Amino acid sequence: MAIVISPSILSCDFADLRGELAKIAGADFAHVDVMDNHFVPNLTLGLPVVERIVAASPVPVDAHLMIAEPDRWAPAYAEAGCASVTFHAEAATAPVRLARELRSAGARAGLALRPATPVEPYLDLLGEFDMILVMTVEPGFGGQSFLDGTLPKITRLREAIARTDADVWVQVDGGISRATIERAADAGANVFVAGSAVYSAQDAAAEVDALRSLAQG
Ligand code: DX5
Ligand code: ZN
Question: Any idea which positions bind a divalent metal cation (predicted)?
Answer without folding.
Answer: 31, 33, 64, 173
